[in-house]
Each structure stands twice: as C-alpha cells, then as structure tokens.
User: Which sequence fits this backbone?
C-alpha cells in the first residue's frame, strides 16, 4: 500500500508563498540554466514561469534567481545560493512531512479506497446498468 503524499505551501507573509510549483520551477531553472528551457522541461508556459519568478522576486530581500545578459548564445537564468537554500530546505521539510505522515496515518491508509484510472472514465450510469 502506497504512503499518502503530503503537498504543502509555505506562506511567509501575505502574497509571499512557496509551494511545490515554484520549487519545481526553480529546480528546472537550476538544471537548465534558462527560464524558458526550464519552463519547457516541466510543461509550463513561459508566461506562467516568468510570473512565478517575479512573485519570488517580490517575496524575498535576497534574489532567488539572476538573469544573465543575452549574447551570441543568448541569455540565461541561474538560481542563486539563496534560491538553492530555499529549494534544499523545502525538500527537506517535504521529506520530514512524508515521514511524519507515514507514521501518523499508518492506521488510516488501509481503509483508503484506491481507484484505478479506468474507473474514473466509466460513468455512474454505466456502472448501474
């Protein structure tokens, strides 16, 4: 039986939050060295990725990313040391929550009804007939 998945968002202040989407994007930027490539790699539009990076810029006194000027090879974007610390601490907290959830919910998990994807596509009317 699979363990429950805990998803969370940290609200540091009003309009200053970090959750799985922003962390995933930061990891993609870190891995690709580019906002546009990072967004493509995770199936996110450039506009959405840009808005998320802008919201991070407005949330912290320290920069989370830095853009490099374009040139022959084009520009890029790098995750700063602070941004990397944000990623690492979020992922550590995620692991801590997963461990705690597994411990606290072990008696609940066996009672969960698991649905397969094919059941989701079958209408209620078809199941009743």
Assistant:
């Amino acid at each position: 039986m699979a363990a429950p998945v805990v998803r969370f968002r940290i609200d540091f202040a009003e309009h200053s939050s970090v959750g799985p989407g922003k962390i995933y994007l930061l990891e993609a930027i870190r891995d690709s060295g580019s906002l546009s490539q990072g967004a493509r790699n995770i199936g996110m539009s450039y506009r959405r990725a840009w808005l998320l990076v802008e919201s991070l810029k407005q949330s912290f006194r320290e920069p989370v990313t830095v853009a490099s000027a374009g040139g022959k090879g084009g520009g890029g974007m790098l995750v700063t040391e602070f941004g990397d610390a944000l990623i690492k601490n979020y992922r550590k907290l995620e692991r801590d929550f997963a461990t705690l959830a597994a411990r606290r919910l072990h008696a609940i998990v066996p009672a969960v009804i698991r649905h397969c994807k094919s059941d989701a596509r079958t209408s209620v009317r078809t199941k009743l007939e």
About this structure: The mean pLDDT is 88. The longest helix spans residues 81-104.
